[in-house]
Amino acid sequence: MDATPKIGARLMPLFESRLGLGKGSFERRAKRAAHRLPRWARRDLRALSEAQGMAGHPKLAMRLDMAELTRAEGRIARHLEAIDVKARRRYWQLGVLAGLMFNLALLAALMAAVYYLLIRS
């Protein structure tokens, strides 16, 4: 059946460009992308992965609902296209900077407490 390469083919370049998942098969990329996606997208990815496994078998391939699989693939593709890679990178950098600033403030407070204790005694 020629449905095997069609299932999830639209998502492969989006996994690479939007989530940075450049290596591996569709199942492997879907598994790595799952924790970054909402629950409904994980459910759709699971359905697409199961469908890819079934598409290789002629009798099981007849049981696939290609319209539902196409809709699921479209929903995931729209969600991935809406991801702003630059904003994700910026928010990650701000998170690292905030953690660093918190640690420096904690270190300054600790040093002030030690200095106070040394002066006092």
Describe the structure.
- Helices cover 74% and strands 0% of the residues.
- The model has no long low-confidence stretch (mean pLDDT 90).
- It has 6 helices and no strands.
- The longest helix has 36 residues, at 85-120.
- The protein has 2 domains: 1-83, no CATH class; 84-121.
- With 121 residues, the chain is mainly alpha-helical.
- The protein has helices at 11-19, 26-33, 39-55, 58-61, 66-81, 85-120.
User: Main sheet?
Assistant: none
Uncertain residue segments: none
How many alpha or pi helices? 6
The pLDDT mean sits at 90
Please compute the radius of gyration using only Cα atoms: 24 Å
| Strand element count | 0
Short summary:
With 121 residues, the protein is mainly α. It has six helices and no strands.
Give the tags.
transmembrane helix, 121 residues, single chain, 2 domains, membrane, transmembrane, mainly alpha
SSE layout and pairing:
Elements: H1 11-19, H2 26-33, H3 39-55, H4 58-61, H5 66-81, H6 85-120
Helix pairs in contact: 1-2, 1-5, 3-5
Keywords: Membrane, Transmembrane, Transmembrane helix
Transmembrane segments: 94-118
